[in-house]
Amino acid sequence: MGASLPPKEANLFKLIVKSYETKQYKKGLKAADAILKKFPDHGETLSMKGLTLNCMDRKSEAYELVRLDREYREAIKCYRNALRIDPDNIEILRDLSLLQAQMRDLTGFVETRQQLLTLKPNHRMNWIGFAVANHLCSNVAKAVEILEAYEGTLEDDYPPDNERCEHGEMLLYKISLLEECGFLERALEELHKKEPKIVDKLTSREQEVSLLVKLGRLEEGANHYRALLAMNPDNYRIPLDFLQGDKFCAAAANYIKPLLTKGVPSLFSDLSPLYDQPGKADILEQLILELEHSISGDGRYPDRYYMLSTHVTEKEPPSTLLWILFFLAQVGNHLLSSLHGPWSVSLQ
């Protein structure tokens, strides 16, 4: 520990931490080398030197010390060692929180984000970061409380023009959390109340439609869908929210196939809300499995889907099968996450 060093070296160690925080990496590295010349096995100094080298893009050298690129747990240990000397170091706490998220140490992630909020409550991102951390821990109601507490610190005329977009995104996020909690009426009421402060009107209207459909207000929802289609007639995703049965399957195939061919990583994220609608998860599962079976066989999509698509009947590129398998892996991760909380499966 830094406290076990003689006074001269202990002061040098404090200089390393200060230099890291202020991004004066060369100065910090020089101080670290001075300590290690006398105490070559001093763990905290080795840790801070590794972190400093990493920030200087000298990763090969940092790797030899703390192996940051692969062994994140070792890196977390380095940050914790540094925080023993300077427990309120914002820079180190922020970096530690990112590593904890990377390692899926969600309990530690929540604790670190709470500490950052306590130290800097006037920073919007610290409130949002704390809310996101609780969301990832499946504590969605707590995430809503945090964002509402943040709103309680704001003046009525907030936000200023230069922060309208970011504030609007935060409001949409809070409304999506209310929806996730099952507070549908409250989410819709909040959406209407905060609509003037939301810049992204298209996403706002799409979220409103989703809430109306879930509330069973189908006629209103249909009217909103027509308005959205009038705004963007090429959006083939919209009908998937209200079609059922065979019509849903046909529309889903028409929508999914070109995106699998193209290789769109966000496809599952786009379709994931459909998994909460009765019956649609099973239809999508059978559809994707059928596509996978056919592509694995002769390299083409099933014959019965050719007439539904504008694509020609030539063989798919090998990458299509990869994207189908990636989609199926995301489905499995989604199902496990719903049982055990987020990030239950690591896709390597």
From TrEMBL:
Domain of life according to the entry: Eukaryota
Record-linked InterPro entries: NatA_aux_su (IPR021183), TPR-like_helical_dom_sf (IPR011990)
Alphabetical UniProt keywords: Repeat, TPR repeat
Keyword Repeat recorded: yes
Name of the featured protein: Uncharacterized protein
Species in which this protein is naturally found: Gossypium aridum (American cotton)
Annotated GO CC locations: cytoplasm
One protein family per Pfam: TPR_11
Keyword Metal-binding: no
Parts forming coiled coils: none
